[in-house]
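Inverse folding, one chain.
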């Protein structure tokens, strides 16, 4: 049986169709039923919880421009230090808490929901602070208990969803991780709307300022989600069968992991750390992610520029920055489809172009307000680096869970260590720094431009090294594998259409199957 090779346009159309084809007809009914159960339990919980993380992470910026600055007399570099204390806790706890949350212990199933309850309580406490010192202390521990979520979620999704095409169906993880990353942009966006609503409707109610009500609302949402997590967070498959899966469905989870070449998690050893830190992946992905974070930093502070301009209302200052989050939502949705058509390095090029436009406008600075708004809003496209890097780690290291956990933990720990302290010198907020301070950032914007290019160059180098490894292992290139999947070929089977793009691809797909079967 032959398969008609799709044109480039047909591939794009099919890729967008597959965004909605979450339960492919080529799957047996039992597998579709399993995926549906995972989607309405694991995936929904992960997305709602991640949404809350971003609510609780970004709310300090919304509160700052909505009265907290004046109430707590934050007229120096306090906003920088608030972010530093949060990120210090986040960075210090990142690797140890990640390793705890992704271990094979039966108690790890309850670890993340418990952390969520704790930082919900801490978020509420922020509404009661009287001094900036109290706020520093609370922000540090908010960072500690938020630390394991991002990497822990992405690691666990990669243990339940397929990381490569099966019987020509779309890659399960790509579609789900797209929704996962969408939730972060939605959290950032809705924090602005919540603060605007709190300021308009609750400012002064029961003697509380609008910014205090934002923390109360965020905490109330988060604590409910934390309680739900005790019921719907399954932890690693190795910890045992979750209550919402039957024994047959749980066995199918383990069977699917064997099919996808996903190894069981085991205890970390010195050998695993040596294997990780003598390989190129941890270094290049850490550098790429660090550079992306430093380039991203000024793009989230449109509110500081608007406040400095002096002709925007509090409601506008909270609402206008949400446009870039909306752009991120569209970007992630569209890229989730296009990830199965184009090689990853091409998306990195798009991200670099976006940041070059932003930094170029802001370096010049003396431009119209409309131009500045455009510069900030289009940076929503720079949401691409995070899914690019984490999808790459899940794809490249799917057969080595210990190596993957170490790389993911290292990315977050080392990248956020730099991200914690570098902005103090690069992006200060105190007026005493003159033009180096927000919102002009005479040093910061050139660094933003440079870091965007560092990200692009290093990520493209990582893509090259990945392709070289695949070639040495007898595997098809990423684009050839995606092309085979879009043309309805099974990259896990020995059967390849006679009408496939090349004999080499057929041979390499067969070789891949032999390797997976060993």
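Residues assigned per position:
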């Amino acid at each position: 049986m032959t398969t008609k090779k799709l044109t480039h346009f047909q591939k794009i159309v099919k890729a967008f169709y597959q965004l909605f084809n979450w339960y492919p007809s080529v799957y047996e009914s039992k597998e579709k039923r399993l995926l549906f159960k995972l989607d309405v339990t694991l995936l929904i919980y992960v997305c709602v919880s991640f949404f809350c993380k971003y609510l609780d992470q970004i709310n300090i910026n919304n509160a700052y421009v909505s009265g907290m600055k004046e109430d707590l007399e934050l007229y120096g570099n306090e906003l920088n230090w608030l972010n530093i204390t949060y990120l210090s806790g986040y960075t210090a706890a990142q690797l140890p808490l990640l390793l705890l949350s992704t271990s094979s212990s039966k108690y790890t199933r309850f670890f993340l929901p418990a952390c969520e309850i704790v930082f919900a309580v801490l978020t509420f406490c922020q509404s009661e602070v009287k001094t900036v010192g109290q706020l520093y202390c609370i922000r540090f521990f908010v960072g500690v208990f938020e630390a394991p979520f991002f990497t822990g979620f992405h690691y666990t999704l990669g243990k339940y969803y397929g990381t490569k095409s099966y019987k020509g169906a779309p890659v399960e993880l790509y579609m789900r991780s797209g929704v996962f990353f969408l939730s972060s942009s939605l959290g950032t966006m809705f924090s602005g709307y919540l603060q605007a609503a709190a300021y308009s409707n609750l400012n002064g109610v029961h003697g509380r300022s609008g910014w205090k009500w934002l923390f109360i609302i965020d905490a109330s949402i988060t604590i409910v989600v934390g309680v739900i997590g005790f019921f719907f967070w399954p932890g690693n498959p190795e910890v045992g069968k979750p209550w919402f899966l039957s024994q047959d469905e749980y066995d199918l989870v383990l069977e699917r992991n064997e099919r996808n070449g996903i190894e069981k998690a085991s205890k970390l050893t010195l050998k695993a750390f040596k294997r990780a830190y003598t390989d190129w992946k941890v270094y290049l992905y850490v550098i790429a992610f660090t550079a992306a974070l430093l380039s991203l930093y000024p793009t989230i502070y449109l509110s500081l520029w608007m406040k400095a301009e002096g002709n925007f209302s509090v409601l506008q200052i909270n609402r206008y920055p949400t446009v870039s989050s909306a752009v991120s939502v569209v970007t992630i949705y569209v890229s989730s489809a296009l990830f199965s058509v184009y090689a990853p390095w091409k998306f990195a090029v798009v991200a670099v172009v976006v940041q070059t436009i932003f930094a170029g406008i802001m370096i010049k600075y003396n431009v119209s307000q409309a131009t500045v708004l455009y510069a900030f809003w289009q940076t929503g496209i720079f949401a691409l680096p995070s899914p690019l890097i984490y999808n790459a780690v899940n794809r490249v290291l799917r057969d080595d869970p210990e190596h993957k956990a170490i790389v993911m933990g290292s990315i977050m720990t080392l990248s956020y260590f730099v991200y914690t302290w570098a902005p103090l010198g690069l992006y200060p907020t105190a007026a005493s720094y003159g033009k180096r301070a927000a919102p002009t950032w005479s040093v910061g914007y050139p660094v933003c431009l440079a870091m965007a290019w560092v990200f692009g160059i290093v990520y493209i180098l990582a893509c090259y090294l990945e392709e070289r490894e695949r070639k040495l292992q007898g595997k098809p290139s990423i684009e050839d594998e995606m092309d085979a999947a879009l043309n309805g070929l099974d990259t896990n089977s020995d059967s390849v259409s006679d009408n496939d793009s090349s004999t080499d691809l057929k041979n390499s797909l067969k070789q891949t199957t032999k390797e997976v079967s060993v």
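The mean pLDDT is 84. The first helix runs from residue 8 to 18.
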